[in-house]
């Protein structure tokens, strides 16, 4: 299974996916694309001798023009699976539809709660006592595709957004490689807007 990872920043989830693609898993990270030239994830990719590309938005470029260039960059890698790992751009519907059932994202909340940004602070402000991360198939509506796997963490009274983010990140690194593994084993599909593992609805 050829896996392509899209990033904008640190790439700790990229690292977890790279590390998870060991000899027992029929998946290989064949490339990393960033929209930011200084993303630390690009350094991680180089350390693992993985090919990288940058697709940087031009000033005044429309979303659809950017997404056309992104699609061209992606096609060079002929991926089976596209893994969004902190890729901080909103994608056009047309772009997303081209990769239906083949593109996944990780979001730092227990979806459907807290789509969008600042999820850790929002969970604290709401007085929640648990929080977490979700891996989901990407559909045109932001952070709204069918959930594949979630990990929960407690929220403690002394938490701030930083301590909570750390706890969530640790869980992200456990669940994202597992989902990639399932996909590479052909156990995971999206059909009629729902996710299935081993033919059972998730
Ligand atoms: C993670 O919190 C992920 O849930 C969100 O972006 C962050 C990426 O972190 N989508 P990293 O770059 O993988 O360290």
From TrEMBL:
(6R)-10-formyltetrahydrofolate binds at residues 63, 88-91, 105. The record marks 143 as: Raises pKa of active site His. Keywords: Purine biosynthesis, Transferase. It holds the Pfam family Formyl_trans_N. Its EC number is 2.1.2.2. Pathway: Purine metabolism; IMP biosynthesis via de novo pathway; N(2)-formyl-N(1)-(5-phospho-D-ribosyl)glycinamide from N(1)-(5-phospho-D-ribosyl)glycinamide (10-formyl THF route): step 1/1. The keyword Lipid biosynthesis does not apply. The active site is at 107 (proton donor). Residues 2-180 form the Formyl transferase N-terminal domain. It is an enzyme of class 2 (transferase). InterPro entries: Formyl_transf_N, Formyl_transf_N_sf, GART. N(1)-(5-phospho-beta-D-ribosyl)glycinamide binds at residues 11-13. It catalyses: N(1)-(5-phospho-beta-D-ribosyl)glycinamide + (6R)-10-formyltetrahydrofolate = N(2)-formyl-N(1)-(5-phospho-beta-D-ribosyl)glycinamide + (6S)-5,6,7,8-tetrahydrofolate + H(+). Catalyzes the transfer of a formyl group from 10-formyltetrahydrofolate to 5-phospho-ribosyl-glycinamide (GAR), producing 5-phospho-ribosyl-N-formylglycinamide (FGAR) and tetrahydrofolate. HAMAP family: PurN. Belongs to the GART family. NCBIfam families: PurN. This is Phosphoribosylglycinamide formyltransferase.
């Amino acid at each position: 299974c050829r896996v392509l990872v899209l990033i904008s920043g640190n790439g700790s989830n990229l690292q977890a996916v790279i590390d998870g693609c060991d000899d027992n898993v029929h998946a290989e990270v064949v490339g990393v694309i960033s929209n930011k030239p200084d993303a630390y994830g690009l350094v991680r990719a180089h350390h693992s001798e993985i090919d990288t590309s940058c697709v940087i938005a031009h000033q005044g470029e429309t979303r659809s023009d950017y997404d056309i260039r992104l699609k061209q960059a992606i096609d060079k890698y002929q991926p089976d699976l596209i893994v969004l790992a902190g890729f901080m751009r909103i994608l056009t519907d047309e772009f997303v539809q081209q990769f239906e059932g083949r593109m996944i994202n990780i979001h730092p909340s227990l979806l459907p709660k807290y789509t969008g940004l600042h999820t850790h602070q929002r969970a604290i402000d709401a007085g929640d006592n648990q929080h977490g991360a979700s891996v989901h198939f990407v559909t045109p509506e932001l952070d709204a595709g069918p959930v594949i796997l979630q990990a929960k963490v407690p929220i403690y009274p002394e938490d701030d957004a930083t301590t909570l983010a750390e706890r969530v990140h640790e869980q992200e690194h456990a669940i994202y490689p597992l989902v990639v593994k399932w996909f590479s084993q052909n156990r995971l599909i999206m059909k009629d807007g729902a996710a299935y593992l081993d033919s059972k609805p998730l």
